[in-house]
Amino acid sequence: MDPHAPVPDGWDPAIDAILLRARRLTDAEIVALARGYMITPETGFDRVRVLAIARARADSPIQIRALEHGVAESIGATLPGPSAHALRRLGLMAIAERAVTDAALAVLLQDRLGPPMAAAISRPWSDLA
C-alpha cells in the first residue's frame, strides 16, 4: 500500500464503532477508562513500545495519523464544557484518549500485532465497553 495514498472513506466497522462510542463517553466512563489504562498489564509488555514497532512496520502512516485525529475529535465530544475542562486539567482526558487510540490502532494494526497482542493492548477499552 502506498503510504501517501488518500485515507479510505470508511474505517473498519470495529474502528467506526470505537469512534462512535468514544463520542458518547460520559465523564465517569472517561475516568474509569483512564484508571484502567494506567494499570500495568499482567503480561509485562510495554504498550507504547509494541505499538511504536507496529506503527513503524505499517504501510499506512497517513491512515494512522488520520485515525489518531479521528479519535482526538471523538473523545468526549458530547461532554458539557465544565466536565471536559476538569478532565483535561486533571490529565484524565489525555489518558483516556490514549486508551481509545490504542484500541483503534490495535484494530488497524492487528495484522502486525497478532490477535492476542491486539486484544491485550485494547483491554482497557474493551473492559469499559
Strand content: under 5%
> What is the chains' assembly state?
single chain
Count of runs of 4 or more consecutive helical residues: 9
> Globular, elongated, flat, extended or rod-shaped: what is the shape?
globular
Q: Keyphrases for this structure?
A:
9 helices, 71% helix, 129 residues, mainly alpha, disordered N terminus
What does this protein look like?
With 129 residues, this protein is mainly α. Helix content is 71%, strand content 0%. It has helices at residues 13-23, 27-38, 47-57, 61-74, 81-89, 92-108, 110-113, 115-121, 123-128. Helix 1 (13-23) runs parallel beside helix 4.
Quick rundown:
The protein is an all-alpha fold and 129 residues long. The protein contains nine helices and no strands.
List the helices and strands and how they pair.
Layout: H1 13-23, H2 27-38, H3 47-57, H4 61-74, H5 81-89, H6 92-108, H7 110-113, H8 115-121, H9 123-128
Helix pairs in contact: 1-4, 1-6, 2-6, 4-6, 6-8
